[in-house]
Every structure is written in C-alpha cells, then in structure tokens.
Amino acid sequence: MNSASSEMSYRDAIREAMADSLEDDATTVLLGEDVADAGGVFKTSVGLVERFGRDRVFDTPICENGFVGVALGLAVTGYRPIVEIMFSDFLPSAGDAIVNELPKFRFMSGGQCNVPVTVRAIGGATGRFGTQHSATGETWYSGLPGLKVATAGTPQAAYSVLRTAIAQPDPVLFFEHKGLYGVKGPVVRSAPMDVGTAEVLRPGNDVTIVASLLMVQRALRAAAELELAGVDAEVIDLQWVRPMDMTTILDSVRKTRHLITVEEQVQLGSWGSSVIAQAAMEGIALDAPPDAVTLPDDLLIPYSPTLEDAIIPSATQIAERVCAIVGVAARG
Amino acid sequence: MSVKEGRVHVTPSAVDRRGWFERILAIRFFEEKVQELFMDGLVEGTTHLCQGQEAISVGSTAALSDDDYMTITYRGHGHALARGMPPEAAFGELMGRTIGCCHGVGGSMHLTDFSRGLIGSFAIIGAGLSVAVGAALSAQRRGDGRVALAYCGDGATNIGTFHEALNMAAVWHAPVVFIVENNLYAEYTPLQVTTAVTDLAQRGVANGIRSRIVDGQDVDAVYEAVLEAVAHARGDEGPSLLEMKTYRFRGHSRTDPAKYRSAGELEKWLERDPVTLLERRLRDEGVLSDDEAHEIRVRVQKEIDDAAATAAASPPPTLDAARAFVYASRELR
Ligand SMILES: Cc1ncc(C[n+]2csc(CCOP(=O)(O)OP(=O)(O)O)c2C)c(N)n1
Ligand SMILES: [Mg+2]
User: Fold this and answer.
1) Rounded to an integer, what distance in angstroms lies between the CA atom of residue B22 and that of residue B16?
2) Which secondary structure element, helix H or strand E, spans residue A119, and what is its range?
3) Which residues pair with A194 in a beta bridge?
4) What is the ipTM of this complex?
5) Predicted confidence (pLDDT) per residue in B105-120, tens digit
6) Which among A101, A109, A196 has the least Cβ separation from residue B102?
7) CATH of B14-251+264-332, one of 3.40.50.620, 3.40.50.1980, 3.40.50.2000, 3.40.50.970
8) What is the distance between the alpha carbons of residues B132 and B145, in angstroms, rounded to a whole number?
9) Are A59 and A99 in contact (CB under 8 A)?
10) What are residue A326's DSSP bridge partners?
11) Rounded CA gap, B36 and A164, in Å?
C-alpha cells in the first residue's frame, strides 16, 4: 500500500477507491447505468472498463430494483459488487432491494451467507438539478439493522470510506455528493479501515460542528470565519451514519460543551437529531442548547438558482448559528 | 449429462421415478402435517401450502444438478423438500427451532439452504427473480456450467421486478430458468381480474426469452421441460421461461377458506391431483406395484411424523444467536 499522499479530486478519489478494490480482489465488479464505456454520468468510472474488462465493469438496463437484486445474487454466490445509483433520488426505485433484501438476507437465512454489496448513491444539491435530482438521503435507510450507511465529505474520505465500504462482508449504502467532485485535497491510499469512524478534520475547543457530505466543506469554511471571530471550532466529518461514531463525537462535545450539526436534509429524521438525542441521553452538560442546521421543513429543493442557494446552508449561515450558541457576535 | 449437450431428453429410470413418488408424497404429507401442527399450536403466524402444485417441485428439482442455484418464494416448502432439505430442518424452521434450516429465525416463508444451492427464499413478490439472474451471472463469469432456477407465481408476473429480471436475463444471456407457477389466483383474486393475458408464457416471449407452457400437474412433463430449459442454459443458449399450469387445493394462506372459487372448479382440478396422477401412471406402467405403493405411503408418513417430533424437541434459538446473524463483520456483533 502506497502511504504517500497525493493531491486528488473527490471524483478521482472515488474512481481510485474502486480501481484499487477491483485490482486487489478479482471478485469485485462494478455495475450500473452508463458506468462502462461512458465512464459514469459523473465520470466516476472513467477508464475502468478498459482496465478491468466487460465482465467486471458493466452497464445495466434502467431498473434499479432489478439490478440491485442482481448485485445481491452475485454477492451471495461469490462476487463483491459495487452498484452505482446515478442519483440518490432513484434509491427508492430500488427500495425493496435496499430495505427488504440486502439488510435482511443474511439474518433471515440464519447467517448462512455474507452480503458484500456496496451501493454508491450520488446525491446532493447546489448543481441546479431540480427537485428530483438533488437529494442526499443519507438517513433515508439508516434505520435498518443489517445495513451499513456511509458518506464522504473530503477526497480522503471518498477514498478511504469507499474502500472500507467495498471491503465489508455486509451491505453498505455509500453516499457521495456531486457538488464535491471537483474538490481537491491530499489523499493517502489507505487500506480499508474500521467501519463507523468519524474523522476530526479540524481540532478546536469552543464548539463541536458535526457535518456530512458537502456540509463538511462548508463547516470547514465556517470554522475559518469563526476563527476570525475568536471561536475555535472542532469540525468532524460524520462519515458513517450506521454505525455512528458516537464516541468521537461525544468526546468532542464533552470537551467543547457546544454542539451543532449540519446536514443537507430536513430536521425530522436527520442524523443530527440522533446525535443531539444521544448527547442528551448521556447527560452531557452543555453551556448552551444544541442546534441542528438543516434544510427547511416547509420546502422542497427548488431549481431556481437563487432559491436553491437560499436554502442550502452556507458557510456564513453555519458560522452565524455557531455564534448564536457560543454567545459571540458574528462578524460581518 | 455434459454441460454442452444442448437439447437433451434423458429418460428417467424406474428407480428415479419411484423416488419421485416418495418425494411427492413427502411434500403432500408434510403440508398436511403443517395444518395439524397449527392446531397443536406448534406452528404460528402464517403458512402458504402447496398441495396441488407438488409435481412442479419434484419434476423441476429432478432436472437440476446438485450445485445449481435455486430461488424460491414463501410458497416454498415443496421446493425445499424436493431439493433434499431434511423434513426436520423444514419443520424446525416453521416451529422456530434451532434445528430449522435458518435456525428458526426465518420461518415458513424462508426455507433457505445454501448447502443445497437454495440461495434465497423470498416473501416479497418478484424479488427472487433478479437475485437468480445475479447468481446466473456469477456462474456465467466463472464458466462453471451452473444454472439458476427461479420460481414465482402468476401474480408475480405483474410486478416490475419480474420484467426487469426477464429483460436482464435476456440481454445478458444469463443461464437462468424462470418457472411461473400459474395457479390462477394471487391471494384471493383470480388471474383475469388483474392480468390481461391468460398465457403468462407470452410475457417471456415479450422479453425475448424462449418460453413454453407446461402441464404443471404432470411430474414427467415438468421434468422434461425443465431438463430441456436447463440444458439450454448450460449450453450457453440463454434463459427460458416455463409457465406451469397448476392449481392450489388449499387457500392462499392458513386463514383463507378459498370461498372465491367458482362452483366445481376445485373438484375439476382434484381429478388432476399430481400425486394420484403420478401414482396411477407408475402403476399402469408397472413401475410400482400396489404393495410397493402401500409400503412407500406408510414409510413416508412415518418419516414425516418422526421429523415433526424431532423438530418439536429442538429448542428455540437465543437472541444472542440471532444477533450474530445481522452483520457478518465481527466489530458489530
Ligand atoms: C411486493 C408484495 N406485494 C404484495 C404481497 C402480498 N402477497 C403475498 S402472496 C400474494 C399473491 C401472490 O400471488 P402469486 O404470485 O400468484 O403466487 P401464489 O401465492 O399464488 O403462489 C400477495 C399479493 C407481497 N408479499 N409482496
Ligand atoms: Mg398464484
């Protein structure tokens, strides 16, 4: 394993995580709509069919439930499929496979099989894709024992969390954010890690900001703004929704005594609510009520660029909400 | 039979067919015993019995090799038993005991047994079909000559996944055989109320798949048709769909008195009881004597009764055991 870090875009990190997984294990295959010759609608699999051949990288018909079912069939007979879902919004079309088949299959069989399927869902707003092509959806399927759910907010996480997901003997729903594909950062080609690890991206003492996907980048920018206001924020990339790394998160909260979560979903059913609930149940003393920065509950994601920008939390909005709980006047 | 033989017509031996008679009786007696166990409170919840459809189980599994794959449905007792699952493992599963094929956590609708290639049993309509296509693709990639057999009902031909699976099988030339058990009803609703075609084999044709209508009451006919379809699949000649015309003699599930049948319908189909048909034919052909038939009946009935007693003596699983079935990765156990 090459431990040197190289500069890479989030998109390239996704591709490299798949390429290295395909290279390491000849049973790994990639399937989905337009993933082979077209290299994926978001160009995340460019070059893979040329390198690994058509038996291992192949296009499917447009039938999400059907081809996730095919991945399950491949998985329980010796393969390790990666399935691309072009937009997270299409996950419900594979709803039966994701809710009833992947998570329940091993259990119902009394542990007779492993189900090493990774479903990669490409989600997220800011691309002006409109109401049916902009959801993230990382908690839609988080209440399902048997499933693991992961996200990535940095190029490094795109590589290492996806590598880890593919190496799992269990089904993993892995969320990418299409607004991050161009983001560059250092990437170490790490070996698969443990599941359920959140990553502290910026250590700080005054407030814990936990974020997922694109909101990780915005939280990091918010932390830079907050520094100017004299607030030392700790920023954590949630990475795994199930299992969730409550240890890392709550240790941070015990230190900072302030908690704010940021995600591109509405509050009801958000992972942020679960983090806040857990902090409360563990009786963690806070110096101010916690906050959850989310999408508005009374709107859907609109196409209009002006409106889309207005509802997706910006770095400045995150910084303002942090200032409100730490009791500092926001700058600017 | 070699993998590349193509269209084959292997005549089953007298020994094979006497074995079929034992198997079809075992399924019939098993299903009747399940009803008894319900009354005794040993089986709870729901069950979907297959009396009337047993010829499909026996004939189709007889045409498979040991390492072929199968996906079945909630109406799967017959298929699992025909595939060789010991009756105590099936009873144990219905009773929720550790001796069950899935250690008692699956229940009546989930008779999975990987050791017999029975890689999935589905309580969601249509779901097993695409999983079978996936298993067929893995055989195709390995080139090991295995075939996947996927069962579904007539009602299942209306759900999207059915058509998705057929299309994928056709376009990828997957070595899979779809068996549609057309018993004329989906739960309590007759086929013509929900479905604009009466011959469901048409739906295979529409998806570019070689399709045939088969007499699902006749073990020999089922065997011959499945053998041919399996040979096609093994010979890299692609998938097939076989519509088995059949009928279930009991209600859809335990609580269904089947009041929706038209007058005389059941009686007409009972004349074509697959157990009687096979027995009569074997006797007519001199394959089975009256004494042999009697001896087999008594022996199989005892085996079924003993298996139920063995299963009932097995303990239920523990929550800790069940917990270990959720995730394969050690860190989450
Ligand atoms: C997706 C889904 N919808 C509905 C049901 C409820 N259900 C169970 S069996 C059944 C009828 C299926 O009929 P058919 O496919 O003809 O099979 P049969 O029961 O006759 O063997 C229905 C509607 C289900 N299990 N799954
Ligand atoms: Mg039916």
Assistant:
1) 10
2) strand A118-123
3) none
4) 0.97
5) 999 999 999 999 999 9
6) A109
7) 3.40.50.970
8) 15
9) no
10) none
11) 50
